[in-house]
Design goal:
Length: 243
């Protein structure tokens, strides 16, 4: 690089300032992206697959058993396809992880290669249950999302879609889901994509909520929402005010 080239090239600080000045609601067009949902045969994954497909997104459901995934996809329709987890990961641009916490580490470890280079969205909530109700667990890495980042060093890991009611997601009679989605990640470009995907669902809005180190608080809040829903017989979500 010549001295002239160096003078004309913005440094990292300049690029960062430029990014901060950009309208935070100026989000990319994600309509052409293929979204895979690992754990797509479970309630949360199935609901997310349904909502994104209704919005016009191409969706592939993943499961350990390809036949189970195809059965779930056929039941949902909307052009959704079903595949074994590794194939789902390979064929998708963005992969949502919606597997049970108990199988989180094992599933991601097995999929490290097909998830390499992919944008991974972890929505897993590490929870325990006892006679007092739900309570948050804290993984050794700090959160489910940070565990995913540790296990998938060649993937771009974000965290989102934690606080959504699986009942509402799967209910065809519910046309809008009025809630915000907290989105966390290390790359502004990646969190913008996830925010844009959330915004494809009527009533939903993706809100940037910080880096992955803040994921534990977001995952843990689900325990409180479970208590709210039980007390008030509701399907509560979240709204962030003044943004």
């Amino acid at each position: 690089m010549t001295t002239s080239d160096a003078a004309q090239s913005p440094n990292a600080a300049t690029r960062a300032k430029a990014a901060l000045k950009r309208d935070p609601w100026d989000l990319p067009d994600v309509s052409g992206l293929v979204v895979g949902v690992l754990g797509g045969t479970g309630d949360q994954g199935r609901g997310l697959a349904y909502r994104l497909a209704v919005a016009g997104q191409k969706v592939i459901i993943g499961s350990r058993a390809a036949e189970r995934a195809r059965t779930a996809a056929d039941e949902l329709g909307l052009g959704i396809e079903g595949a074994e987890n590794a194939e789902c990961a390979r064929r998708s641009d963005v992969v949502i992880v919606a597997v049970p916490w108990e199988g989180h580490a094992k599933t991601l470890t097995a999929l490290r290669e097909p998830l390499a280079g992919k944008l991974v969205v972890d929505c897993v909530n590490p929870l325990g249950f006892d006679k007092k109700g739900a309570y948050a667990l804290k993984p050794e890495e700090g959160s489910a999302a940070e565990q995913a980042a540790a296990l998938l060093p060649e993937s771009r890991v974000t965290a989102a879609f934690h606080h959504l009611s699986a009942v509402l997601l799967q209910d065809p009679a519910t046309e809008r889901i009025d809630t915000d989605v907290m989105v966390l990640g290390e790359s502004r470009a990646d969190t913008d994509v996830v925010q844009a995907l959330a915004a494809r669902i009527p009533g939903m809005r993706g809100v940037f909520a910080g880096r992955l180190r803040g994921a534990h608080q977001v995952e843990s809040l689900v325990a409180n929402l479970i208590s709210v829903n039980r007390r008030y017989k509701a399907h509560a979500g979240l709204r962030v005010t003044d943004v």
